[in-house]
Amino acid sequence: MLSKTELWDLIEPVVQEQSLTLFDIDLPSGRGGILRITVAAGEGASDGVGIDDCTKVSKRISALDRFEEVIPPRVTLEVSSPGVNRRLRRPEHFQGAIGEHIKLKVYDRERNEKENLVGVLLDFNGTSLQFEADNSGEQRTIPFEDVSDARVDFIFD
Fold first, then answer.
1. Measuring CA to CA, how many Å separate 71 from each of 1, 2, 20, 77?
2. Which of 8, 22, 54, 115 could cross-link to 15 by cystine, CB 3.0-4.6 Å?
3. Are 151 and 97 in contact (CB under 8 A)?
4. Tens-place pLDDT, residues 10-55
5. Correct CATH for 4-80 of 2.40.50.320, 3.30.300.70, 3.40.1350.10, 3.60.20.10
6. What is the mean pLDDT of the chain?
7. 79 neighbors 54 (Cβ within 8 angstroms)
8. Residues 133/140, Cβ–Cβ less than 8 Å
9. In what helix (H) or strand (E) does residue 96 lie, and over which residues does it extend?
10. Is the pLDDT higher at 110 or at 105?
11. How far apart are CA 13 and CA 27, in angstroms?
């Protein structure tokens, strides 16, 4: 199977042909599993990503000349949208989530342990997050490298 970077370079143009943005790629663990391709609405789009969009991208990927190299026989291709509680991994994900309620798992260097935080992402400058915790209202600067997991925590009213 190709590396994540090679897959990104191969799949991104296919996604862009559908006027969508490649949001993320999750590689399967081991020789089998699920290759998850997450696509988002392209810039300036007024609609989100629908099932038809995902189907078109999946069919286009399946039609690639290098399909067997991209997706070995024991791997299942899954194409979906990020959803409202989308995972945040890449710098552009955090940039796009400024002002949103999020959940974070971060490494606390002072206590040498992982910490779960819930609150609002106030800012992201590429190397650190400005974060306001729900429970205390405390504003913190968190190094991007210390974030082990992050998701938008959409609050349904």
1. 7, 9, 21, 7
2. 22
3. no
4. 999 999 999 999 999 998 887 788 999 999 987 766 678 999 999 9
5. 3.30.300.70
6. 90
7. yes
8. yes
9. helix 91-96
10. 105
11. 18
